[in-house]
Amino acid sequence: MKKQRWIHTTVSAILAAVMLAGCAPAAETEKQEAPVETVMANSVASDAEVFPITQEKYDLRIMAAKDANIEDINTNEFTIEYEDLTNVHVNWELIPSKSTSEKLNLVLGTQEDLPDVFLGMNLSNEQVMTYGVDQKVLIDLTPYIEKYAPNVTRMLEYNPNIRKAVTAPDGGIYALPSCEETLHTRYPQKAWIYKPWLDKLGLEVPTNLSELEAVLTAFRDQDPNGNNKKDEIPLTGATTGWLTIPIDYLMSPFIYTYQKERFNVDAEGNVTAPYATPEWREGLRYMHHLCEEGLMDPQCFVQDQAQLKQLTMIEGENIVGVVTAGAPGGFIAVGHKRQPDWIALPPMADDEGNCITASLELNLGLGKFAITRDCKDPAVAMRWIDYMYSKEGGLRATCGVEGRDWRWAEEGEIGLNGKPGVYTKILYFGKTQNAHWGKMIPDFSPDEQRNGLVDTRPEGEQMLYDVTAKLYLPHAKDMGIRPLFFQPEDVEQIAESLYLINDFVPEAYSKFILGEWDIDDDAQWEEYLANLDSMGLPSLLEHYTDAYKAQYVE
């Protein structure tokens, strides 16, 4: 079996920071900058929210992650419009999305030819510690936020944990996040069932593990697609895609877990690893039973998202009964003839009704905007980005022209949240366009704005909002880890342990579920736990607990 890789991008960022930190020339790392007060006193930037930003044309060099849906950033309507408004001309250096991490590590590591601004490059907290706190390649944005960025300030004050998440141990903020309070992405662990099979077999939507097994067994044995072939796949998933691996969804009756972080934290700030608990073992035992009975597809630990979609969109009769994914688009093409036939499953409970599903209090995209020490006038750069964090600026930058690409909601229109609508889109995300900057730019879209979207499309966000609010929100609990800063002297050890553990855990759970390792063998389970200890799990949990309490616990 091909080994599944689950290595969080943070691990790569930590390793890159460790390896490249020593590459910078000494003269550069010791470069002395003018005091912030002097820089701001000499700035040509106008006051906050006053346009234009500068009286004379100002060139700003920005390295940004390329959005493939934008035709041409230089001729983009918003590029031209925003330059006219601000008097700031951007010299773009666009990096293909698959190469952003490599390019960012190279530029930060060598510190040669630095841009004025990094935009949408997803700087990690480890990079902030190394190149901001330590080497001062990235500047502290705090004084510029206070004087020039009321919209950024509004975001930081919206939830105290947002400020905590981006504030380094020295008290500085070196990179700004994007924050969208999209309900269905805050509660993302979902599964979907093919309703025509339930209807044909006269079955109800399952709500617990016993009912789920009974439904899957019926899918296996009763030929729900009616082709007289035993070709039905009761439950499947994939190794790539948004939460398409079934393990997180199926763990909900046993223990809280979330694929992206795989650490839990209690109210006192103590961090634990769910995969080293008896409850995790019980969950694996249940999944092994499903696999052994032919109810869970072994290929879900091998196939990728494209192969999964081939199964759900196969010509002829449908052959798949249940799929795990954050949204239907994760396993079937939007608009496919069978898409409306998939309905959401609730999180599965045990026979006593116990279940828990992930809740992401901070749905942040970290490291979306940073200013380097080579920027001659950081105030201009801060003024330039602050507009994106306003309601009007964010909608213009990410949605397009008012009245053509989006519009304010009319009287009587209802938003996703059931309240009077705020706005509706005319041009939807995912289409090639040249009107706005889409996901390339960070913004701030709080609950009342984001979930005030009016979306009447059958396959649109209203369906995702409704199933999330009805089925998942009642069972959600926020036990996941928030973004953390680690002390520089601990970074290398943390990186090594994370690399080993994040590689080992998916391999181990696949082997236990598939029966290559015996989940009922106490000696084999103890060996698994001993391997985690040898990879540094106890020390890793101590570092995480210390960092979490220092950053978030009052």
Identify the notable features of this structure and list them briefly.
globular; D-Maltodextrin-Binding Protein, domain 2; 4-stranded mixed β-sheet; disordered N terminus; 12% strand; 17 strands; alpha/beta; 6-stranded mixed β-sheet; 2 domains; 554 residues
Can you walk through the features of this model?
- The protein is of the alpha/beta class.
- The chain has 2 domains: 271 residues, D-Maltodextrin-Binding Protein, domain 2, CATH 3.40.190; 240 residues, 3-Layer(aba) Sandwich (D-Maltodextrin-Binding Protein, domain 2), CATH 3.40.190.
- Helices cover 39% and strands 12% of the residues.
- The strands form 5 sheets. A 6-stranded mixed beta sheet has the order 2-1-3-12-4-15. Strands 6-9-5-10 form a 4-stranded mixed beta sheet.
- Strand 7 and strand 8 form a beta hairpin.
- Helix 1 runs parallel beside helix 5 and helix 1 runs parallel beside helix 6.
- The protein is globular and about 75 Å long.
- The protein starts with 8 loop residues before the first helix and ends with a helix.
- The N terminus is likely disordered.
Name the CATH architecture of the largest domain.
3-Layer(aba) Sandwich
Which CATH class of the largest domain?
Alpha Beta
Major β-sheet annotation: 6 strands, mixed
Number of helices: 22
- Count of individual beta strands: 17
Q: How much strand? A: 5-15%
CATH topology of the largest domain: D-Maltodextrin-Binding Protein, domain 2
Going by helix content, strand content and strand pairing, the class is: alpha/beta
The name of the CATH superfamily of the largest domain reads Periplasmic binding protein-like II
Low-confidence stretches: 1-10, 26-30
- What coarse outline follows from CA principal-axis ratios? globular
Output mean pLDDT. Answer: 92
Rg = 25 Å
Number of domains: 2
Neighbour order of strands in the largest sheet: 2-1-3-12-4-15
CA distance, first residue to last residue: 47 Å
Estimate the helix proportion, in percent.
25-40%
